[in-house]
Amino acid sequence: MVTVRPFVAERDAGAVFALWQATLGATWPLTAAQFRRVTDDTGPAHGRAHFVAEDGAALVVFAATQVPPHDPGAPPVGHLPALLVAPSAWRRGIGTALHDRALAHLHEQGARRVQVGGGVPRIWPGVPRDLPAALPFFRRQGWGFAETSYDLVRDLRDGRATMPSPQPGGGVAIAVAAAEDVPDLLSFERREFPSWQGAYAHVARLGDHADFLLARRAGGPVVGELILFTPRSHPERSDVLWTRLLGADCGGLGAVGVAASVRGRGIGTALVTCGSAMLHKRGVGNSCIGWTWLVDFYGRLGYRPWRSYAMSWRD
To answer: Residue 82: pLDDT above 90?
Structure first.
């Protein structure tokens, strides 16, 4: 008999990680600690709730959900970060049943728009294109895939990271944030890139303000910023999960944003160049930029496509 029920970490965590290892471990290897960080549902700040299906005594399907914290009055966005189905449960309707239960839960939590993937922290931005059975499954559930996003990687040991980093001019300087800059940078995200607020707030909440790189006019407002991640970052962060593929010294940068009023002035290029140099100084080998469409822009700065994802949102 098949039973669908809520995930209980104390009871299910080991079996769910074993399911990951059996279904995805060869292609997307994670440690148990990394898997726990992106699925932990014990803290209310995460907004996570998960579900499992058991076939007799065997746990055969796992569905993760998340509704990240959002501004009061803003419509919450739901996420389906992962759906794992054991081969013994394929084509039996069990994966579909858990998929539907997950969407029903997100609807109950007030989400009116849902994404496959994403969330804070995330496993993938969308459906990995190297999982051939995944896309047909989601299409059968009514998801459409109209675009592709990319994870990009650059080896910072290529020598270019030691070259002098450009400053954008126009009175704008690039600098590592101090603790007192955090309110300004969160205000900037709220105003310019509201969908990134959760990522910045998560890093700030963990005290990693030195992993924020700011572009700022002298004595004036923040006009651009990004987030850095290195092996020295807070151990509860998982900005770059794939250390078994990219190396234990991998890091990255992301959520690169420039105010609409000053785009086209080289600020984004300066932020990424300075950020890459900073990562190199902090001991990073491979640098990853996740969830981007800007392959040509980052390509000019030495980053190349590493993995790709089919992206989908639905009401």
So the answer is: yes
